[in-house]
Amino acid sequence: MSSPLRVEWWGRLPYLEAHLRMRSQLDARIQGTVPDILALCEHAPVFTTGRKRTAESNVLAPGDIPVVEVERGGDVTYHGPGQLVGYPICALHGRQKDLHAWLRGLEDVLIQSLAHWGVQGRRDTRNTGVWVEGKKIAAIGIACRRWVTWHGFALNVNPDLEPYERINPCGLDSELVTRLADHTKPCPHLAEARDVVGAAFRGWWRDWQGPTIAG
Predict the structure, then answer these.
(1) pLDDT digits 0-9 by tens, 4-36
(2) pLDDT tops 80 at residue 110
């Protein structure tokens, strides 16, 4: 029997507010008082820097956009309106305790989601995330505490790409960033992207658990 999964829409909220909610959910999941969750949301503009040593130096000219240092792996990235952000806060058990496989699984979810709109997403063997026609459309950066995951992924649906010019996103040139709006017409609304990604994650999560995890 599979462990339950709750998919929640947190709406548009400031990054620090989402971070507090993530931490609260993380603590509750570690204690076993809540089920696994996929929180989906949208943020006001913010740059976040991960644990990679080069992250801070890849913030070039943030201007009026705040920069927040966070616990996830990876370099600097941008979050803002028109981008769907997902935070899976999930307990890993037994054979699931493989963070490399977890990252590949998140890529699978996003590749499957893009296929819904006829867009072919691909992996890059050198860089985590999902790519379309040689440009990055989704970034992934996770953290894990006591084998409960947090942080997650960001899918560019229709964000303004100008803020990426203020950083080296994920340590790369800003010209290597793309969005769904540039590959399908009409571009789906964020609400549609939320539903498609939520359903893809739910299906993948069932397969990932397999038949051996008790609920």
Answers:
(1) 899 999 999 999 999 999 999 999 999 999 999
(2) yes
- Catalytic residue IDs: 170
Contact 6, 37 (CB under 8 A): yes
Q: Are strands 36-43 and 83-89 parallel, antiparallel or unpaired?
A: antiparallel
Give the position of tokens 């997403």. Answer: 121
Are 213 and 171 in contact, with CB atoms under 8 Å apart?
no
Residue 173 has a pLDDT of 93
Residue keyed to tokens 């609304």: 189
pLDDT exceeds cutoff 60 at 106: yes
Q: Which domains does the chain have, with CATH numbers?
A: 5-212 (3.30.930.10)
What are the DSSP calls for 111-165, one per residue?
HHHHHTTT---EEETTEEEEEETTEEEEEEEEEEETTEEEEEEEEESS--SGGGG
